[in-house]
């Protein structure tokens, strides 16, 4: 076997090993958290699609059967990854619902075609998929021949449609992450550990892999050999799979700590769910008023809640808690999380994240001038979890870096 083929085989086997090992771990975890199951299915889909080089050498008997399943496997990768992201960013424990079934329409069509292909006579099945030769169809009846040609055309369209499908879900994931990160700021004072930033890097990386795969797919379907792109694709895919497997196994849903929090009332969970519903967010001209339209909070109640929040922040310095969240604050002042959120949004014209961090920055400004503590020590002392988060918040509230602020005020 040539060295180039050996390298390709080694990369392929390594990728398949990571995919199946990770899928197994994810399925085990899915028993407690269904979010991991779609990612496991996505991994299995990738494994089926890329398995041909390894099967050709290690298990030739399975090559044709696996190739027959390649179409539904290809079409299930993107929607399952979307469902995984949806689960990570959902405001309540995610479960597969009837509404999610629409994402499986194309994979279902691909599976139907695969099932029909399995029912074809063995010689026709082998020639069409194993050898890519349609000459054998000339020996069949016109009706049967036209039926097979119709299936081939639909298959070709679906394979090329995978390119558009992947781009569609890539855009959906980007939009979902934007809404999710905005929603985090309504609930948590520190969000950097929950923002799933690795997914943003992954989307860029996957975009490159997707482009290479799309080019390779087009070339293959136009009967142009492309070993170069195949090598690049396998290498990029191995890196991508290792990256996703590592982070996918570590990542927990961003709102997970709220799932079992008794202080998060049903009304507040409903408001979070509305923010996670893309159709409602996109159709609503005024998201805030839509979100609180059923609220019984009066102006007087809102003023009272605002006063309570100010007291616990200024007198008890609750903002110093690095893990402060809206449910924690609600429990502390014995008020509904939904009412606190509404008060912050409508009465104080801010969100929980910005309100708490503003208090932290005020404390940090005082320490910068009056103490000799390092910037990192000050950041930790006033409630930030990292230096980068402190710098970002400080610049947002003062338009200066901590060092520039200290220098400017010491010179006055």
What can you tell me about this protein's structure?
With 412 residues, the chain is an all-alpha fold. The protein folds into 2 domains: 3-253, Up-down Bundle (Rhopdopsin 7-helix transmembrane proteins); 266-277 and 292-410, Arc Repressor Mutant, subunit A (Orthogonal Bundle). It contains 21 helices and no strands. The N and C termini lie far apart (76 Å). Mean pLDDT is 85; it is low at 278-286. Residues 303-408 form the HTH araC/xylS-type domain.
How do the strands and helices of this protein lay out in sequence?
Blueprint: H1 3-29, H2 36-50, H3 52-58, H4 60-68, H5 70-88, H6 105-119, H7 122-130, H8 142-184, H9 197-221, H10 227-250, H11 256-259, H12 266-276, H13 278-283, H14 287-291, H15 299-314, H16 326-333, H17 337-347, H18 352-370, H19 375-381, H20 387-398, H21 402-410
């Amino acid at each position: 076997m040539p060295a180039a083929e050996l390298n390709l085989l080694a990369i392929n086997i390594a990728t398949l090993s990571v995919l199946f090992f990770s899928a197994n771990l994810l399925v085990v975890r899915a028993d407690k958290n269904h979010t991991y199951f779609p990612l496991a299915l996505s991994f299995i889909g990738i494994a089926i699609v890329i398995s041909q080089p390894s099967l050709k050498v290690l298990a030739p008997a399975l090559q044709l059967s696996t190739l027959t399943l390649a179409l539904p496997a290809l079409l299930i990768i993107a929607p399952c990854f979307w469902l995984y992201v949806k689960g990570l960013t959902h405001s309540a424990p995610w479960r597969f619902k009837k509404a999610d079934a629409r994402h499986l329409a194309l994979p279902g069509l691909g599976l139907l075609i695969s099932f029909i292909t399995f029912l074809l006579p063995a010689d026709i099945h082998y020639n069409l998929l194993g050898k890519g030769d349609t000459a054998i169809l000339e020996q069949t009846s016109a009706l049967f021949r036209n039926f097979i040609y119709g299936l081939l055309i639909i298959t070709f369209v679906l394979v090329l449609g995978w390119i558009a499908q992947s781009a569609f879900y890539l855009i959906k994931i980007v939009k979902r992450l934007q809404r999710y990160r905005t929603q985090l700021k309504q609930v948590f004072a520190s969000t950097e550990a929950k923002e799933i930033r690795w997914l943003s890097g992954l989307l860029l990386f996957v975009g490159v892999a997707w482009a290479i795969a799309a080019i390779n797919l087009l070339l293959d379907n136009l009967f142009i050999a492309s070993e170069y792109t195949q090598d690049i694709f396998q290498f990029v895919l191995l890196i991508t799979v290792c990256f996703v497997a590592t982070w996918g196994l570590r990542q927990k849903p961003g709102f997970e700590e709220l799932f079992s929090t008794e202080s998060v009332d049903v009304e507040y969970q409903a408001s979070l769910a509305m923010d996670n519903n893309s159709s409602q967010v996109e159709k609503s001209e005024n998201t805030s008023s839509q979100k609180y339209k059923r609220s019984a909070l009066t102006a007087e109640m809102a003023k009272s809640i605002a006063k309570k929040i100010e007291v616990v922040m200024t007198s008890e310095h609750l903002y110093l808690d690095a893990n402060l969240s809206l449910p924690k604050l609600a429990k502390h002042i014995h008020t509904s999380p939904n009412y606190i959120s509404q008060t912050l949004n409508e009465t104080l014209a801010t969100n929980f994240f910005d309100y708490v961090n503003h208090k932290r920055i005020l404390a940090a400004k005082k320490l910068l001038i009056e103490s000799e503590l390092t910037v990192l020590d000050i950041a930790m002392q006033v409630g930030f979890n990292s230096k980068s988060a402190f710098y970002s918040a400080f610049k947002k509230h003062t338009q200066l870096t901590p060092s520039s602020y200290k220098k400017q005020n010491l010179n006055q």
